[in-house]
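testing teh design pipeline on a random one, pls ignore if ur not involved
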């Protein structure tokens, strides 16, 4: 007997609840959270200043490998493959979820207007406000959606495990590089992960309903399935 699995909608709701709770603490400038953010960020910044090779590697990873443009390019390749297969709805779903993620990220950033860390000896720089981390959110959304598409198309377990490992390393890695380079607080990265994961699970939960409605609209009047 297999253990029961959680419905994606419930996971999305739980993740969104955690994100909203974190958002409230950030907006309220909750002392314990800000203190933990400062302590972790300061420790990582001292390491980044002292270890130039690690800092250079982190900049290459965050600016080229796990950059939001790279993540969006990955989704564009997946969307192109789906278009080639004439999977119109899934293509729209992937592109739409990515667009919603970008819009949410920018909207929350503007609403919270949280300053980024400021250092006397910075090792990197970033634009706009801090919460949530756009790198963390975009990587989470892109990797999550790609894994979902692979699952829908029955990719073999070996390749799915490999892709999952790459996705986990990418999502965790981009969060670490943003902290190590001193351009985000830890709660910024956590917020990006939570909101990105909530969006992915929300898209997964809603897709079957959209597909069902599409099938109803394209079914012939007599209810028979076209061959």
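output:
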């Amino acid at each position: 007997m297999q253990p029961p699995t959680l419905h994606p909608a419930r996971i999305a709701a739980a993740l969104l609840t955690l994100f909203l709770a974190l958002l409230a603490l950030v907006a309220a400038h909750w002392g314990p959270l800000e203190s933990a953010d400062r302590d972790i960020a300061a420790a990582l910044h001292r390491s980044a200043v002292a270890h130039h090779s690690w800092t250079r590697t982190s900049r290459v990873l965050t600016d080229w490998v796990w950059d939001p443009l790279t993540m969006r390019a990955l989704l564009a390749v997946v969307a192109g493959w789906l278009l080639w297969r004439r999977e119109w709805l899934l293509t729209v779903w992937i592109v739409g979820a990515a667009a919603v993620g970008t819009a949410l990220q920018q909207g929350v950033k503007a609403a919270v207007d949280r300053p980024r860390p400021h250092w006397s000896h910075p090792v990197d720089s970033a634009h706009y406000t801090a919460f949530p981390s756009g790198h963390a959110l975009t990587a989470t959304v892109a990797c999550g959606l790609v894994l979902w598409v692979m699952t829908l198309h029955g990719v073999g377990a070996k390749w799915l495990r490999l892709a999952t490992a790459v996705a986990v390393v990418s999502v965790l890695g981009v969060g670490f590089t943003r902290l190590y380079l001193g351009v985000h607080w830890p709660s910024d990265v956590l917020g990006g992960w939570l909101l990105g994961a909530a969006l992915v699970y929300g898209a997964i939960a809603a897709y079957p309903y959209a597909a069902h409605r599409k099938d109803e609209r394209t079914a012939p009047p007599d209810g028979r399935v076209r061959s």
